[in-house]
Amino acid sequence: VSTIGIIGGGQLGRMLAMAAARLSLRTIILEPQADCPAAQVANAQIVAAYDDLAALDELAQRSDVVTYEFENVPVAAAELLVRSVPVLPPPKALEVSQDRLAEKRFINECGIATAPFAAVDSQADLEAALDSFGGIGVLKTRRLGYDGKGQRMFRSPAEDRQGAFEALGSVPLILEGLIAFEREISIIAARAQDGTIVCYDPAENVHRNGILHTSTVPAAIHEATADQARRAARAILDRLDYVGVVGVEFFVLGDGQLVANEMAPRVHNSGHWTEAACVVSQFEQHIRAVAGLPLGDGRRHSDCVMQNLIGDDIETVPAWLKTPDALVHLYGKRESRPGRKMGHVTALR
Ligand code: ATP
Ligand code: MG
Ligand code: MG
User: Fold this and answer.
1) pTM for this structure?
2) 105 Cα to the center of ligand 1, angstroms
3) Binding site for ATP: residue ranges?
4) What atom of ligand 1 comes closest to residue 145's alpha carbon?
5) Please, are residues 341 and 331 in contact by the beta-carbon 8 Å criterion?
6) What CATH number has the domain bearing residue 331?
7) What digits encode the pLDDT tens for the residues 292-330?
8) What is the stated purpose of this protein (predicted)?
9) Rounded to whole angstroms, how far apart are CA atoms 276 and 283?
10) Do residues 49 and 129 both lie within one domain?
11) How many angstroms is it from 282 CA to the middle of ligand 2?
């Protein structure tokens, strides 16, 4: 492998391209936005939509392997690519992770607990599902939600449900039981082409306004809980005959048991800390896996906290630059907007 095609040109694509460059691998980005974070560091870009047939064909021609930085790559596009170039992680991973209903069914098939759930395709479905959940739950769009967008919580049976289906856009929804969790963790794991699996230590995640705010490692969990997270990641990776990095989010219950929330078939925001606290980051690990190289070890040499720089947080950069043992990573986005991820910083401690 000498050239890796990457679908998606955001910060994750950018960091993958940076990791590839260090291993003398070339990258070509498929991304409709010309001025995207990844274009500044990749070797080449095809400026086109993710489902543009001619562009996909060109990407296949110019790449030895194609990967992606986001899970909403049209499955049809991935299946078309697969006919002429290896696509890793396998398209099946896209299929299960871009629809919350398919995702929960798949995770359960792997022997991993999730919140109880019900498909909601109408206001009547919603009423029935809410009734069966005691009037409490989280309503989510099945597709395209991120950073807590496309969600509505029902915290008490007294809450008004009127118009809730329409309010989320009248698209297929899922109602999940509301999990009373003690904390949230995620695990980043990688599987190589020979089936070898490497797990990073679970991170403890705190969200603000629905967006990941900090990831702290080590998480305040018992070894048995960490082990449960590793076993869950392994089960998911093996069942998909996966190659690349996956991120799996969990709720930790009071008794230390885990309930899986969702998975992402890609490098994950809650794994950014690995670039500062591990010798081989999640980005390099993903590149190694899809390029058919041996994985690096996942050992952590330092405790750390990764903090996202969102919107105006960008103004804290001068102070971070003067902070010892803090790795500042900016994404090259010109304008900051509320809720926009501008960069992150990992402070070792
Ligand atoms: P991401 O940006 O991580 O992809 P997302 O938009 O896909 O986020 P989720 O991860 O499903 O959304 O939910 C966002 C947050 O909302 C969770 O991290 C958790 O704090 C809360 N949440 C989601 N589902 C539930 C649930 N069933 N019970 C309790 N809290 C939940
Ligand atoms: Mg998500
Ligand atoms: Mg999430």
Assistant:
1) 0.97
2) 17
3) 100, 140, 145-151, 176-179, 184, 207, 261-262
4) 6
5) yes
6) 3.30.470.20
7) 999 999 999 999 999 999 999 999 999 999 999 999 999
8) Catalyzes the ATP-dependent conversion of 5-aminoimidazole ribonucleotide (AIR) and HCO(3)- to N5-carboxyaminoimidazole ribonucleotide (N5-CAIR).
9) 12
10) no
11) 18
